[in-house]
Amino acid sequence: MVPIHDRIRNDLLLNERALWTALTSADPGPAVKELCHPECSLIFSKMPILGFESDPSMDEALRPPFHHFDGYSFQNVSTIVIDLMAGSVTYEVQAHRRNREYNILASTTWGQGSDGEWKIICHQESPA
What we know:
Layout: H1 4-23, H2 29-35, E1 36-43, H3 58-61, E2 71-83, E3 86-97, E4 100-112, E5 118-127
Parallel strand pairs: 1-5
Antiparallel strand pairs: 2-3, 3-4, 4-5
Helix pairs in contact: 1-2
């Protein structure tokens, strides 16, 4: 049997990849929204802090033509188990959009609800 902290780290990394898969899609809003806690904050470079009730709202800001990146890869990933229902993933991202490369430092804090689903509490990206 896999130790609980290893399972949590795996779950966090799978969810982080789901976030980035959503962010690289043509219409990221619905998938990102599904991953977010009702009071989450999303912090992207050169944008206001996004949440469900921010101005602009997450729904408004993430609808097309919003297109974050075409593809990505993670490096130097660190998954931290805060407790059995919370964790954080920090990492470097090499991403690209059209023919331009981006180096980003990113971190996401996740919380697990009573239903067992992991939700984003805060996601932040900064240029490296």
